[in-house]
Amino acid sequence: MNAPVSIVHTHVHSLRILSGAEALVARVLAAEGSAGYGFTLNLDAAVARDMAAWDAAARTRGVPLCALLGGCRRKSVAVERDDGRGTLLRVDPFAVGSVEDVQTMAARADGALALVAPNAHPWEIAFCAALAAALAGSDVRIALPAEPPFPSIAVQEIPGVGVDWSLEPAFAMIRW
Prior knowledge:
By secondary structure, this protein is an alpha/beta fold. Helix content is 27%, strand content 26%.
């Protein structure tokens, strides 16, 4: 799989988030000069790097992530508790390998799927919303392991991933 931009530098940091869990946060510098950021809570640096590359690509072009993935098909995405039942295909975008893999799985599911945010962290939910906005099909949701704090999440229409990095104070302390 190729990155969506030509990457000239990748930097990954491990940080302890407020919940006590460990996260890997990646920053990539694209040849075009933009920086992109990504993360993972499953400690697979490749996931963080892939997300950062997509973030850099969207920032370079000045478009939201969903625009790079085929267009923004929805303004908001339903958020529900993942009870493990139902007919939707459950996909953990942080475990499948890449954004392209998520798109392939969604196409096979004919758009009826739930993107799982396994830790229900706001960064995970925001990234799932950006992916869900671009996926074809009428039934695309975000599934959380606990009762969601809100019934839906608005899709950010800002360049990049739309993750609010300020939610974790340790992110601001990273020396890139």
